[in-house]
Design goal:
The chain is of the alpha/beta class. The protein has a single domain, classed as Rossmann fold (3-Layer(aba) Sandwich), CATH 3.40.50.150. The strands form two sheets. It has a seven-stranded mixed β-sheet with strand order 3-2-1-4-5-9-8. A two-stranded antiparallel sheet has the order 6-7. The longest helix is centred in the first third of the chain and has 17 residues. Bound molecules: S-adenosylmethionine. S-adenosylmethionine binds next to α2 and α5. Keywords: Methyltransferase, Transferase. Pfam families: Methyltransf_25. It comes from Luteibacter yeojuensis. This is Methyltransferase.
Length: about 280
């Protein structure tokens, strides 16, 4: 057998991870602009910020999984948390590092090129781990991620994750009205699903909150979860929201008020889930 050839041939999983990496590398330059950080994204971002601050005091050690351009990590470093920001896209990591330098918080924030599938490369003990806007939807083995989180978080420490959910009524309506029925139902797919972005592919796994929690249940208790952007449309419908801002702000307030209610919390563009290390 030709071992050199065998070693050089990427597995299907490695190819998918590489394609996802290339997809995010391709948008890193402006991902903190309208594409990755419009007002609907910022609205959800505030909920994660408030949740992390409710969970942990300033000064705590945080690990950010899939930090993107570092918006959250710099925000927490500014308010005196110590943050290790990690991402699988080297271009995103560069952007996060530059953001930390520009904000003058490099002493409290480091950016490292580590994917969620290789958390065994990280050392240290964290008070909490957070992940915002779906990096964990790109993880090929959620049980392995959970085991690594258990190794990295102290007993009693927190996980705060925003994850792309399976049931987004706005999305179903949006694509069904355009006759794109497969796209409308893409979140129902079992296993890994190709999702296009910027002429690249993001290999994505979708979850119900309880399905997601099952991977963590051995090491973490479930504290709570809630819908993000259930009444409010998902971020790619921002133009619709800009045409009638007052009306949609009222919908946003419905999210704030009822997003944690039984049944409603199982829907939405994303869900925000909080767990504690046993
Ligand atoms: C939608 S962006 C969110 C970025 C950031 N958390 C934010 O709030 O702006 C998803 C991020 O997940 C990262 N990502 C994708 N696959 C990943 C993986 N396997 N491990 C770690 N990060 C990954 C991408 O590079 C990208 O930065």
């Amino acid at each position: 057998m030709d071992m050199r050839h065998d070693l050089a041939t990427p597995t299907p999983l490695e190819l998918r991870l590489r394609e996802t990496q290339e997809a995010f590398d391709s948008v890193a330059a402006d991902y903190d602009g309208p594409r990755g950080n419009n007002e609907l994204i910022q609205r959800m971002r505030l909920t994660l910020w408030a949740t992390v601050r409710d969970e942990l005091p300033a000064g705590s050690r945080l690990l950010d999984l899939g930090c993107g351009t570092g918006i959250d990590a710099v925000e927490f470093a500014r308010s005196r948390f110590h943050v290790t920001a990690s991402d699988w896209s080297p271009r995103m990591v560069e952007r996060a590092r530059e953001r930390a330098e520009a904000a003058g918080v490099s002493s409290r924030m480091e950016a490292v090129h580590v994917g969620v599938q290789e958390l065994d490369r990280l050392d240290g003990t964290y008070d909490g781990i957070y992940s915002n806007f779906g990096p964990l939807n790109c993880a090929p083995d959620m049980k392995a991620v959970a085991a690594q989180c258990a190794r990295l978080v102290r007993p009693g420490g927190s996980l705060v994750f925003s994850v792309i959910g399976r049931v987004c009524p706005w999305e179903v309506g949006h694509y069904a009205m355009r006759g794109r029925f497969r796209r409308a139902l893409v979140r129902g797919n079992r296993g890994v699903t190709p999702v296009g972005m910027n002429k690249h592919t993001i290999w994505t796994y979708y979850y119900f909150p309880r399905e997601f929690y099952a991977a963590f249940a051995e090491h973490f208790t479930l504290s709570r979860y809630r819908a993000l952007s259930l009444f409010m449309p998902p971020p790619y419908m921002v133009d619709r929201v800009r045409r009638r801002p007052a009306f949609y702000e009222r919908l946003g307030r419905l999210d704030d008020r009822f997003g944690g209610a039984p049944l409603l919390r199982d829907m939405g563009d994303h869900f925000l889930i909080v767990m504690h290390r046993r």
